[in-house]
Amino acid sequence: MENHHLKTGRTPGVFLPWDEERKRIPQITGDETIVREVWENTDRLAWTFVWHILVSF
Amino acid sequence: MTTEELYQSRLKRYVTAMRNGKPDMIPIRPFVAEFASQYAGYTAQQATHDYRYAVKAYLKCAHDFDWDAIPANMIYCWTGLVQAIGLTYYGIPGIDLPPQVGFQYKEPPEEKAFMPPEDYDLLIADPTGYLFNIWLPQVSSEIQRPGQPISERHNLALLKGGMAMTEYFNVLGNLAQSLQTECGTVSAICGILKAPLDILADKLRGYYGLANDLCYQPKKVLEACEAMMPHLLQVALDSADPKKQVPIGFWMHRSCVPLISHDHFQNIFWPTLKPIIEEIWKHGNQVLFYAEGNWDHHLETFRELPAGSIIYHVDRGDIFLAHQIFGDKFCLSGGIPNDLFHREPEEVKAYCKKVIDGVAQDGGYIMDAGAIIQNDARVDCIQALTEFTREYGQY
């Protein structure tokens, strides 16, 4: 079984944390706050999807 | 009275009762499910698999019956989404079931549980990762685990599933809005909560698997519940009514005596649920305890919760006992046995009178059946519940 995708400490509402994603981006030429906020908002949609499959469907 | 004035009067009535107060009359809030589609002339398949029929059915019911609030929608599982993702635990009307039969959950045999007993540590370490990478591929006929070959159907299942969920949640929001503006009817609940231990049984280990785990590895069960707590809380808060008027629906399944032991309830179920309810209440949202089955053994425990934090719904429990224990703290709803809806309207009226006389004299009661009302209920019996409560339920 492939389990290397599991990570400890993933908090509610977060799938791929911004801190990890930030390391993948060599340079942000504009406002990092915007990039971070939008990343976190779309990431939250994925978290919402999987938890609602469990709880609602 | 305009539709908006009607809505505001119903909202005030409903909210006053939920705060354990005494409104102008007893609010009527029937949790109609496949009754709605049957009444509107649609099959269970139509309403379940094509939500447009469900929307029409709920609007027709809200228009035709003098109900203060109804859920939008109680045929809550859109099986089009289920099919898109390939979820294997549903019986879908028109595919797996006859078109007139409501959707069903299929629980696998113990040896084929969606989560094997040795996976507790993985779930505990990373609940979100476990659900996405291991559980979802296990319950879906289409989605693959990381490391397995990716197919077009895998990609489509995730793409269609995500898009479908967004679409469906928008539909539910629009239905709630239409109930208000077209019918003056309140959308009865907003948001969802399930208890960690119930979720573990329902979707992961199955009831038999969980019963074994409670005996042989109870510490792991507790740790798994604790790991899921903050996520289930977040789901509830994210989906709650931002105006904090209508409650979060909390669906109570199989974590009561005698389905689990008193000790397991006290040491696992309750310590991993109570903090969630308290936190939701700190945010100003009430929770509707929809106590499916009979949870009478636990009423004194539920009484530990802050006054007004919950509405307690009675299915097969003793509503008079619930009133005795909760009367000064929580609003009650339900308590009308669903099997009465197969009998004569006069029997329905007589039972409604008994409940109103016994628990509703000082307010704090909402008229409803014990369980969701499905397509076996007679229309004249539901009309009897509605008309009698309107007439006799005036304060």
UniProtKB/TrEMBL annotation, chain A:
Query: Which domain of life, per UniProt?
Result: Bacteria
Its protein name is Uncharacterized protein
Species whose genome carries this gene: Candidatus Atribacter allofermentans
From TrEMBL, chain B:
UniProt superkingdom: Bacteria
Look up the signal peptide feature and give its range: none
UniProt-recorded Gene Ontology molecular function terms: uroporphyrinogen decarboxylase activity
Uroporphyrinogen decarboxylase (URO-D) domain segment(s): 168-392
Record InterPro entries: Methanogen_methyltrans (IPR052024), UROD/MetE-like_sf (IPR038071), Uroporphyrinogen_deCOase (IPR000257)
Q: Which GO terms describe its biological process?
A: porphyrin-containing compound biosynthetic process
Any idea what this protein is called?
Uroporphyrinogen decarboxylase (URO-D)
- Organism whose genome encodes this protein: Candidatus Atribacter allofermentans
Species classification: Bacteria, Pseudomonadati, Atribacterota, Atribacteria, Atribacterales
